[in-house]
Design brief:
Oligomer: heterodimer
CATH topology of chain B: Four Helix Bundle (Hemerythrin (Met), subunit A)
CATH class of chain B: Mainly Alpha
CATH class of the largest domain in chain A: Mainly Alpha
CATH architecture of chain B: Up-down Bundle
Distance between the termini of chain A: 29 Å
Shape of chain A: globular
CATH superfamily of the largest domain in chain A: Cytochrome c oxidase-like, subunit I domain
CATH superfamily of chain B: Cytochrome c oxidase, subunit III, four-helix bundle
Helix content of chain A: 55-70%
Order of helices and strands of chain B: HHHHHEHEHHH
Number of strands of chain B: 2
Strand content of chain A: under 5%
Strand content of chain B: under 5%
Chain lengths: 626, 254
């Protein structure tokens, strides 16, 4: 045992001595506990977001109906059981904010990056457990701040989750633009700190803390996905911070960065001159576009792992999967303009953004085809996790195709801000990512809690959610093509939209089924934590390193030495093996050539060469060219 | 972790796990990643500056962006003397010198010389405090001259431009009536936000330096056997210095 491992063991024994309730469950520095904290907070936020969507779906389907329970629930925001228009806007905004940032960014990436990075690369914990703990608690404060904003007198921020000025910059613009908006900005500032602390930790852990033998091209695709996700977060969230800083000055200190020549009813012309709201949009979407990949990529990584494991086949095109993740990450930084085609952007610039956007279809298609070819002739095991992963592939394709329509600058004139956009991102980013998250929960629940989730409930959960998601979001395409705008409070007030009322009822029924389906999940999740069937050490016969850790969760992950890695993570159904899987940590007795090649690489000349061209060596290693 | 990396270096190829590929501790790696992220924050601020400046080249109320040399021409105890950009040059010099003393502190840390580390850290901290004090004076003078967040009276009329042309370095100079007019609104606000954000970074750097100085005095690093913490603080300090070069260029030179 090396000195470092000895040191780590002392460290870990040390922790066992003084673990109190507070340090174990509240201010825990163990990545596994922090991942559970992220998950449970994410589930709570997700439930809140879901209930909000059901409330405004009820309003859209039956605008003239009076729901007495709504008055009980919302008080003055639903007098006589009819939802207040301002609060409708607030619900839409907070639903978007919660789902995008709190569930699918922190809930998804926070949970699984924390759980899987140390376990799958073979580390005792994150590089800095303390920063990891801070990351969760900033996220917690941020969640509380956002939830508080729903309960204040003037209501939450209501200018849409993108908080474009002037609605977000002028306190008098609408009721939610006052204190609600201030709280929104505070919540997001805390969120950015949390995501930065987390992201820095994830990157350092992946680069620095891999166990012996875990070269970059032996990392599971989950780790690759979390790694790129963290890089995106670390580089794009600061830009939102810059935009928020200027927005705060516009709101509170009389500057006019984003404001110019505005007439406000009852106030007259404002003094602001010279600013540009489009500038805010540029900065926001410089974060906003990478953000959709921050949401999607962890789900794609989880799906790669789950599909390969449950198809009992190596993932098709490991290197292509990594390169496509890299391509998506890179492109995501230079396509933000496609959210702004109709802001009066120079058409030439629009065409540049359009071409770059359409290029993203290439790596995305590589991923979709690789999933399909991995499934092809596989020995499929339809566990709930597998079903959710296949569901993700379905949403990824059906939602991704409409992305090609929306990326087109000319078509966007008709489709912009219509229900077509809502349909597109709810399928490809919303449903796909949440299905990836569910797949991850069903797959790694045994690792998190040492117990199994109930499969039958899982099947109910999957089928109801899957059908309802298409029921809700598929008809939206047709509404959008016909020109129905998003964020409208009541369609019966506009004669042209009357024809869509039946479809709206259908979609709301779908949403109610989807909401009901989540009860299966919530019951299953919380019941199984305490009463589920006890899990074995490697219940899915998976290859990756996390299943070599014992079922009972200990600080430091492995009781003895950290296992050494001998091969890639996807060696399923090898013809020369009796078992259909070959764990990364199992030494091959018959053919120790892996070790031999490693030894031969230590010649001094080669070491020097590697030292002299760090970056080149890295690229070579990553793409398996060496 | 640094020890671990060094111990296993001989046996392990760069990227095959069990060691740090760059041979750095995780703390230093984290600092680099943080600085990368912070660079994006400053970039976003400077991009907004550029956008605002170029969209304000010609508006109804003004002709052009104010000339920094005509505004930042004051020096302490030299009232009414035209000394364009002299004071800010002194500030820049102070900050760069404090970076040099930081390098010396890091170098002394490599030799495990506690005494020298202490000495150079004190110099660096003084440099930081001096810079912040200068910035306070600069801000105060600027506000006294009439800088406000929501307006800008630093636009120059044709008469003012001629007046400014007739004055050479270290001449007596004061604005005459009609020399100045309303200029592009965001000028002062941008100055305050960006230099303020940078000043906040310098302030944080001074706090960090004071903390590592106290740790040095208490012998924490001596017991630890290495002065890597000084190096990490140094990385941050140099970054702040580098950012100032950009801020200085954008707000004073062009």
């Amino acid at each position: 045992m090396s000195t470092a491992a000895l040191h780590a063991d002392e460290h870990h024994a040390d922790h066992h001595h003084k673990e109190s309730f507070i340090s174990k469950y509240v201010f825990s520095m163990d990545h596994k506990m922090i991942s559970k904290q992220f998950l449970i907070t994410g589930i709570i936020m997700g439930t809140v977001g879901l209930i909000m969507s059901l409330l405004f779906r009820l309003q859209l389907a039956w605008p003239d109906e009076q729901f007495s329970f709504m008055e009980t629930l919302l008080g003055k925001w639903a007098v006589d059981g009819k939802l207040d228009p301002n609060f409708y806007m607030g619900l839409v905004t907070i639903h978007g904010t919660i789902m995008v940032f709190y569930v699918l960014t922190a809930g998804l990436s926070g949970t699984f990056s924390n759980l899987l990075i140390p376990l799958q690369v073979g580390a005792r914990d994150m590089a800095s457990p303390f920063m990891n703990m801070l990351s969760y608690w900033f996220f917690f404060l941020s969640s509380v701040t956002l939830l508080i904003s729903v309960f204040i007198e003037t209501g939450p921020a209501s200018g849409g989750w993108t908080v474009y000025p002037p609605l977000s910059a002028l306190e008098k613009a609408m009721p939610g633009s006052g204190l609600g908006m201030t709280l929104w900005l505070s919540a997001i500032a805390l969120f950015i700190i949390s995501s930065l602390l987390g992201g820095i930790n994830y990157i350092s852990t992946v680069l620095n803390m891999r166990t012996k033998g875990m070269s970059m091209n032996r990392m599971p695709l989950t780790i690759w996905a979390f790694f790129f996700t963290a890089i995106l977060g670390v580089l794009s969230f600061p830009v939102l911070l810059g935009a928020a800083l200027f927005l705060i000055f516009d709101r509170s200190f009389g500057t006019s960065f984003y404001l110019s020549d505005i007439y406000l009813e009852g106030v007259g012309a404002l003094e602001n001159i010279g600013g540009s709201p489009v500038l805010y949009q540029h900065l926001f979407w410089f974060l906003g576009h990478p953000e959709v990949y921050i949401i999607l990529m962890p789900a794609l990584g989880i799906t790669s792992e789950v599909i390969s494991c449950n198809a009992r086949k190596p993932i098709f095109g490991y290197t292509a999967m990594v390169i496509s993740l890299l391509g998506i990450s890179f492109l995501s930084f230079i396509v933000w303009g496609h959210h702004m085609f109709i802001t009066g952007m120079n058409p030439f610039l629009g065409s540049v953004f359009m071409i770059l956007t359409l290029i993203i279809a290439v790596p995305s298609a590589v991923k979709a085809f690789n999933y399909l070819t991995t499934l092809w002739k596989g020995n499929l095991r339809f566990t709930p996790a597998m079903l959710f992963s296949i569901g993700l592939v379905s949403f990824f394709i059906s939602g991704g195709l409409t992305g090609i329509y929306l990326g087109n600058a000319a078509l966007d004139i008709q489709l912009h801000d219509s229900y077509f956009v809502v349909a597109h991102f709810h399928l490809v980013m919303g449903s796909a990512a949440i299905f990836g998250m569910f797949a991850g929960i069903y797959h790694w629940f045994p690792k998190m809690y040492g117990r199994m989730l109930n499969n039958t409930l899982g099947y109910f959960h999957f089928w109801l959610t899957f059908i309802s998601a298409y029921l809700v979001f598929f008809p939206m395409h047709f509404m959008g093509l016909a020109g129905v705008p998003r964020r409208y409070y009541q369609f019966t007030l506009v004669k042209e939209f009357d024809v869509w009322m039946d479809v709206n009822v259908l979609m709301t029924v779908g949403a109610l089924i989807g909401g009901f389906a989540q009860l299966f999940f919530l019951y299953n999740f919380f019941y199984s934590i305490f009463r589920g069937k006890k899990a074995t050490q490697n219940p899915w016969n998976s290859n990756s390193l996390e299943w070599s850790a014992p079922v009972e969760r200990i600080h430091g992950n492995w009781p003895g030495e950290i296992p050494t890695v001998y091969r890639g993570p996807y060696e399923y159904s090898r013809p020369d093996r009796e078992l259909d899987y070959f764990p990364q940590y199992e030494q091959d007795e018959s053919a120790p050539e892996v070790l031999k090649t490693e030894k031969s690489k230590t010649s001094p000349a080669e070491k020097e060469e590697a030292e002299s061209s760090v970056f080149f060596a890295a690229i070579k290693k990553v793409f398996g060219l060496s | 972790m640094a020890n671990q990396a060094e111990a296993t270096f001989e046996k392990q190829p760069m990227w095959s796990g069990g060691r740090s590929p760059f041979n750095v501790s995780y703390g230093k790696l984290m600092m680099w990643i943080f600085l990368l992220s912070d660079a994006f924050t400053f970039s976003s601020l400077l991009v907004q500056y550029g956008a605002q400046r170029f969209s304000n080249i010609e508006t109804a109320v003004t002709t052009s962006w104010p000339d920094p040399a005509s505004i930042f021409n004051h020096f302490p105890f030299m009232h009414g003397v035209h000394l364009p950009l002299l004071f800010v040059s002194v500030m820049t010099f102070i900050l760069i010198v404090s970076s040099v003393t930081m390098v010396l502190a890091v170098e002394a840390g490599h030799r495990n010389s506690k005494k020298e580390v202490q000495k150079y850290m004190v110099y660096t901290i003084f440099g930081g405090i001096a810079f912040l004090s200068c910035q306070a004076w600069e801000w105060a003078t600027f506000i006294h001259e009439g800088a406000r967040l929501d307006s800008n009276f630093f636009g120059i009329t044709e008469q003012g431009y001629k007046h400014l042309q007739s004055v050479s370095f270290s001449d007596h100079f004061e604005w005459a009536d009609g020399d100045r007019t309303w200029g592009p609104v965001p000028f002062a606000a941008l100055f305050f936000i960006v230099t303020g954000f940078h000043g906040f970074h310098v302030f944080s750097g001074v706090v960090i330096n004071v903390v590592v100085y106290i740790m040095t005095v208490r012998g924490v690093f001596e017991r630890r056997g290495h002065y890597e913490m000084i190096e990490k603080a140094g990385l941050y300090w140099h970054f702040v210095d580098l950012v100032w070069v950009f801020v200085f260029t954008f707000f004073y030179l062009i």
